[in-house]
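Lecture 7 notes: from sequence to structure.
We start with the chain below.
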Amino acid sequence: MRYLLLTLLLAAPVLQAAELDADRQLTNSLLAISQSRVPEALDTLDSLTQRHPNFRLAQLIKGDMLLARAQPLQALGNPNGASSPDLELLRDEARQRMRAVTDLQPNNKIPAYLLNLEDDYRHALVVDASRSRLYVYENRAGLPLRVADFYVTIGKAGAGKQKEGDNRTPVGIYSISGFKSSKELGDFYGSGAFTLSYPNEWDKRQGRSGHGIWIHGSPSNTYSRAPRASEGCVVLANDDLTRLGGYIKPGKTPVIIAEQVEWVSQDALDARRNDLAAAIDQWRVDWESRDTARLLTHYSATFHNGEQNLSNFAANKHKVNADKAWIKIGLDKVSLLLYPERSDFALVSFVQNYRSNSLNDRTTKRQFWSRENGRWKIIHETSL
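Predicted structure tokens for the same chain:
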């Protein structure tokens, strides 16, 4: 067992803090084991299991430590290397938790999706399903800075939800619409649940179904669950959910769920942001020109706004613009998010200030932009 842990922890940093969360306490104990600091490891595990007696993985490792005094161990959780379904789930959890400290992302890399966060978005959440990890990014003058991360459980069948009951966690960009307290829910949801906006407009257009996808806690008799154990929700330990709640503002905290996060440098992020921002600004300029034919070149042939296809939309634009002597378009609170798994697809949201000789209007819009033949085009639009 010591050899296995030493291999896992070779690159792990020593975490030193007076009061660590349970996740870090567990990984610190494993690091101590790998470095033959057995008394220290046992002290940490004793403290951890006293605070969280329902933390099954911590209890398992503590039991192994005590058993190792009498005989060598061949594998985590069993002196003979044997296995069982429950034991394999705990081993999977151990592997995923250790990845967070042994397979660190470079400090100069950030998720490719956070192109621009408008000022009202204080934080953004990014879930990496492949790593069972949720990352919290703080918006500092439009630049994302990681401030926290948590171990999470996702759907039993993995990520990429398509239909009701497929036990998959959706991949996409969502908002947190509200919070349900533990008083409203059964013990299964632990300390509460943040509700997600799945299915969003794009999910519905793709024919994806399902409902009740939440970020929620764990049952009182279970500190944490296996990496893949939910019916599609993102699940945390209850104390982690409480800490996560400090970063969440319903309606103002985007949640990006990826099968596997793409990490890029700040320069690469800036280049992608500038490319998309330039396309949006040209769309705005061409709208102001009242040249409807030029404006319509910014829309995909498959464009839809929920009520109109491109043909209907174009006819309406020709009619409306013909009546205008001048048009001015201002965009405020612009947020640019690349869609997970697709570098040629983005969700753009903003407050649109429309002024003309006959109408002044202020509207919040969400647009999906897709790169077609090297050019960004609007494929879907929703006015809120």
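Points to note: The chain has three domains: 2-102, 109-261, 265-383. Residues 1-19 have pLDDT under 50 and may be disordered.
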